[in-house]
Design goal:
Elements (H helix, E strand, L loop, with lengths): L2 H13 L2 E5 L1 E7 L3 H6 L14 E7 L5 E9 L4 E6 H13 L7 E4 L4 E7 L3 H9 L3 H6 L4 E7 L2 E8 L6 E7 L3 H10 L3 E2 L2 H10 L15 H4 L2 H4 L10 H9 L7 E7 L12 E4 L2 E12 L4 E9 L8 E3 L4 E5 L8
Parallel strand pairs: 1-11
Antiparallel strand pairs: 1-7, 2-5, 2-6, 3-4, 4-5, 7-10, 8-9, 9-10, 12-15, 12-17, 13-14, 14-15, 16-17
Length: about 325
């Protein structure tokens, strides 16, 4: 996309409302034991959720490594899991393997729904105008939160989301209904964002995404998601022993940490996978990067060895230097 095109789409999301088409894996967990069952597998406090509430969580291996991150939404009669499409089949198989005598049923509804996020300061009023849910009701929805809706006479699900870089809402509607839904949202003033612009918003907000910034060898503490994704008061879950050992015996120190990197204006945007050096030694790698319209310079998310993660630390790129900064790069409203 041209800089002018990026600027127009970016400003739409920052100043009004932008549309981001999302490809998500969607799993429905039903049955009277659904919350207790997930409570023993996922990192957050699923049993504490009441109808309309959600939380961010992770599914770990016994060694504390991430299999996936995911959002958990209690709809009142079922729990919806929204997760990366690439990890959906793995998670579905693992969940199925641990059902024994529990009253739990699993359903894959990935192909049933299409998803679009509406983000920006006018997200609530835009969604309200498009689907008829009151602006007040939308703003009252917790973050993350959920409710059932009707869109064009068809059943759908509304999620309140904050993982796009701008606070907003996500509509899950039957796939055949998505063209009409997009038309209604655009008619209410929302502008469509391409994947590049959506990624800029996410990186500016310092939000890691599974795949580029987190993978099967990542401990949640390395990615800095523990405050959002992990309950430190609930009972046991898969991988808990490793997390507790790092927190209590290791005082939270991990071998590497995801940090923000800030470069000078005019410097080249470092490609993901770029090696970072200090004192002639490899000390990290870039995972996501972009040219920040808000800051007028390149920014990146990167893993650095723990001796180099303090804000103000400088590391060497192929062309120039980068400075470690606290996340987020740009504070959200």
């Amino acid at each position: 996309m041209s800089p002018a095109g990026l600027s127009q789409a970016y400003q739409a999301a920052r100043q009004h409302a932008g549309l981001i088409l999302r490809e998500r894996g969607l799993i429905v967990v039903s049955g009277s034991d659904r919350a207790a069952y997930l409570q023993g597998l996922l990192t957050n406090d699923i049993s504490a959720l009441t109808a309309g509430q959600g939380c961010y969580a992770a599914y770990l291996t016994a060694q504390g490594r991430m299999i996936s991150d995911l959002f958990v939404y209690e709809l009142g009669d079922v729990i919806l899991l929204a997760l990366p499409r690439a990890t959906k089949d793995t998670i579905l198989a693992k969940l199925d393997a641990f059902i024994f005598s529990e009253d739990v049923q699993l359903g894959d509804v990935t192909e049933t729904f299409s998803a679009v996020a509406v983000v920006g300061p006018a997200a609530a009023s835009t969604v309200s105008a498009a689907i008829g849910v009151s602006d007040t009701d939308l703003r009252a929805l917790p973050l993350p939160g959920c409710r059932r809706i009707e869109v064009g006479g068809q059943p759908g699900i509304l999620l309140r989301v904050g993982d796009t870089g701008e606070p907003g809402f996500e509509l899950l509607v039957p796939r055949a209904q998505m063209p009409q839904t997009l038309q209604a949202l655009q008619g209410a003033g929302a502008a469509s964002l391409d994947a590049e612009t959506a990624d800029v918003l996410r990186i500016e907000a310092g939000v890691p995404v599974f795949g580029p910034d987190m993978a099967e060898d990542t401990i949640p503490l390395e990615a800095g998601i523990e405050q959002q994704a992990i309950s430190f008061t609930k009972g046991c879950y898969v991988g808990q022993e490793v997390i507790i050992r790092v927190l209590h015996r290791g005082h939270g120190r991990v071998a590497q940490k995801l940090v923000g990197l800030l470069m000078e204006p005019g410097q080249a945007v470092p490609a993901p996978g770029t090696t970072l050096q200090a004192d002639g030694k490899d000390v990290g790698v870039v995972t996501s990067s972009a040219e920040s319209p808000a800051l007028g310079r390149p920014i990146a998310l990167a893993y650095l060895k723990r001796d180099f993660i303090a804000p103000g630390t400088q590391v060497q790129l192929r062309a120039g230097m980068a400075t470690v900064v606290a996340l987020p790069f740009v504070a959200r409203a």
